[in-house]
Amino acid sequence: MTKNEIVELMPSVKLPLISVIGIGGCGGNTIDYLFSKSQVESEMARYLGINTDSSSLSHIKSHGKLLIGEALTSGFGAGADPEIGLKAAKESEEQIRAFLEKSSVVIIVCGLGGGTGTGASPFISQLAKEMDIPVIAVATLPFRSEGKLRCHYAKEGVIELKKSTDACILLENDLLISALNKEVGLFSAFEHSNRVLYNLVLALIELLSGSGIVNVDLKDFSKVLGFQGDSVLGVGKAESEDSIIDALENAINNPLVSQVDISDAAGVIIHLCCKNEPSLKTYEAILHHIENKLTHKLPLIISGVTQTQNIDCELEILILATGISEINSENRTEKALTFNDTGKEVEQADYLDIPAFIRKNT
Question: What Å distances lie between residue 13 and 10, 16, 19, 307, CA to CA?
Fold first, then answer.
């Protein structure tokens, strides 16, 4: 070795591979939207579609597609029956495992209440967990006006999905109208819904890319996901440091996502993306604000900061809180999916959620 020769002692950096998988019709349409809008390099994130309906699958754009249960359904779908969706996934277990290979994190998006999304999603997420891959699910609940049976299926789907995921985020369709405006156009509402999930997925990718000034690595991420209980996942945006706490509150209390009290969270990840260098005062204010909200005896708080021009605001903050008591969210889900004897809603929601993967809006 010559005097001026430099020896490379570090192995080449391996970027995490985030697999965002849309399952069923709703999930597939969301993947189509994300794939069309995303500017993230495919080596960091891949968008995949899984369905029992070959026609629906053929119309989405993605990095990959998988038709499951072909022998069972002949590619004609699950007929709104979760049992068929589950059997289709079991039939295609080997192909699904191959689909999941090399993933560092799996993000499942699906609609609950139908056949494929409700039946196949918990099975697919369980396969990912068996492969030691962290799994986050973002699932939409049906409008109560869609009837008792779909709501019953969705309720059962929530139970199964929570068993097989590290974090399960629920989006109630019945929050959609009030959160936006009753006069908003249907396609505009779905566009806004998809944009919410799009921002969330991009923030997660930025979080896991390992390119920050203060990094949250995959082990940190997995540790926080490992806490048992409910989860909160949200993104807030600010145009100046003066409004960063408002952005943080918006991320925690997003009216488009089922509300969960984060006070007893066991683990919290906070990730700040900014175009310019933030002040130490702002950084400490964020952490102090979260600490004051938590009542857990020894919460694990992990923070990260990334400077990037790939955001549409000055500052963007992501929060992921886990290990939260499930009592409140279970009560809320029960109310969201329960009817009285006349088939009318038990509770009239006065604000609406944005199901980020409803239907194709073209």
Answer: 8, 10, 19, 19
Contact between 119 and 131 under an 8 Å Cβ cutoff? The reply is: no
- Residue 356's nearest CA partner among 197, 241, 223, 230 is 197
Strand, helix or coil for residue 193: helix
Over the stretch 21-69, which tens digit does the pLDDT of each residue have? Answer: 999 998 998 899 888 877 555 568 899 999 999 999 999 999 999 999 9
Does residue 346 carry a pLDDT above 60? no
Q: Please give the class, per CATH, of domain 218-325.
A: alpha beta
Alpha-carbon torsion (266, 356, 28, 170), positive or negative = positive
How far is residue 43's CA from residue 16's CA, in Å, rounded to a whole number? 8
CA neighbours closer than 13 Å in the CB half-sphere of residue 11: 2
pLDDT score, position 333: 60
Beta bridge partners of 109: 22, 138
Say if residues 177 and 352 touch (Cβ distance below 8 Å): yes
User: Distance of CA 70 to CAs 74, 77, 153, 325, Å?
Assistant: 5, 9, 23, 40
Count of CB atoms situated within 10 Å of the CB of 297: 7
Token representation of residue 224: 């926080």
For the 18-204 domain, the top CATH level (class) is alpha beta
Cross-strand pairs, 46 = 19
Residue whose C-alpha is closest to residue 305's, from 283, 328, 327, 287? 283
Domain spans, the chain: 18-204, 218-325
CA distance 76 to 176: 30
Q: How many CB atoms lie within 10 A of CB 276?
A: 10
